[in-house]
Specification:
The chain has 211 residues and is α/β, with parallel strands linked by helices. Helix content is 48%, strand content 17%. The chain has a 5-stranded mixed beta sheet with strand order 5-4-3-6-7. A two-stranded antiparallel ribbon has the order 1-2. May be specifically involved in the processing, transport, and/or maturation of the MADH beta-subunit.
């Protein structure tokens, strides 16, 4: 009887050890999976003004006849989030619905400017229907050409001194926010930040080994 209890205890401890090893393996795999599926920022297109370069300066009129400066020294020390959209772009419509919440969250540090080109009547109808009156909306073919806009939706972050800080194609909220995060991190993109962190970790390994 006593020997049976000893055997059962040994078996239970064996099960506990095996479960512990399985948990450690799962934690490791979760970490690897997280690195593989971690959020990817906006797709940076290597066209137009480079990140760090001076943004082309424009002074335009929006759909409500307000003067809108894009580029150059900002009047109120805020960064500019320049968002290129189109009334016929379904992804643009989805992302434009997110702008009020982004403005509420980031409005102290960013002003959001919408940009497009084409017939004004079409854009005015879209502007009203989408409830975008809170945002400047400019029509300028020259502005799009200056940034080499080929696909939409596309966004550019310009700092208060008129420098391009981040840019890229955006397809979801994470992409929009990644441009803001990249600017705050002082990087051109989230991808560059991740690569920088990986390089930093790789450089730290030999130093840790020496100690």
């Amino acid at each position: 009887m006593q020997s049976a209890m000893v055997v059962s205890q040994i078996m239970l401890w064996g099960v506990v050890v095996v479960l512990g090893l399985v948990c450690l393996a799962l934690v490791r795999q979760i970490g690897v999976l997280y690195e593989r599926i971690m959020p990817v920022g906006a797709l940076v297109v290597d066209k137009g003004p480079a990140v760090g370069a001076t943004a082309p300066a424009f002074e335009l009129r929006d759909l409500r006849a307000r003067t809108v400066k894009v580029g150059g020294m900002a009047d109120d020390a805020r960064n500019t989030f320049l968002f290129f959209v189109s009334p016929t772009c379904p992804v643009c419509k989805k992302l434009l619905a997110l702008l009020p919440s982004l403005q509420g969250k980031e409005g102290r540090h960013y002003r959001f400017v919408l940009a497009s080109d084409g017939p004004q009547d079409e854009h005015e109808a879209f502007y009203r229907k989408a409830g975008l009156e809170a945002f400047p909306y400019v029509l300028s073919q020259e502005l799009g050409m200056a940034y080499h806009i080929g696909r939409l939706p596309y966004a550019v972050v310009i700092d208060s001194e008129g420098k391009v800080r981040s840019k890229g194609l955006v397809n979801n909220r994470e992409h929009l926010e990644s441009l803001l995060e990249a600017n705050e991190l002082g990087m051109a993109s989230i991808q560059e930040y991740v690569a920088h962190q990986h390089q930093h970790d790789a450089d730290a390994l030999p130093q840790a080994a020496q100690h």
